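Filed under: proteins

Residues; backbone shape codes:
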Amino acid sequence: MLRGVRRIERQVDDLVESLKLNKEKPPKKCPTGFISIDNWPSCYMFSSFDMSWYEAKDYCAAFDSDLVSLGTTREHFIVTYFIKNNKEYNDAAGWWTSGSFVSKTKQWMWTAQLFLKPFSFIKWAPGEPDEEAAQCMVVAGKDDHLWNDELCILRYNFVCEADARAL
């Protein structure tokens, strides 16, 4: 099992090296303040301050974006790699995503823009989700950037995601 984990870690390291993060001069397809990644369909803006989940969704909407939907394992590793390896961001307690528990369907879903999409993979921390009242998903710094459920009124940093192809 340990060999499998090491192999995955090497693959993630190789992937991140090949993506070449470009913060200084984003291409024209990303809004100002967003980070572009070569050959990747999304742009990201990492907050340097905290807000409730609702405020963070509104903030992202003001930039024609939404809270990040970590739709693939690859995207999860890209976003968390950037957080972990950026001194400005790696001390944050957590990062809001668009993940939310939808009572009507009784499942966790990405709630970005005008669609609801069930999680296609999960990266919950051990014992999570653990609270029925906690309806919003955060990438938790204390749990090595795995997912936790939290009350939506709590304040965390957040990641906005914009579709690079549409810009």
The CA atoms of residues 103 and 161 lie 24 Å apart. Strands lie at 21-22, 36-37, 42-46, 66-67, 94-102, 107-110, 117-118, 136-140, 146-150, 157-163. The longest helix spans residues 2-19.
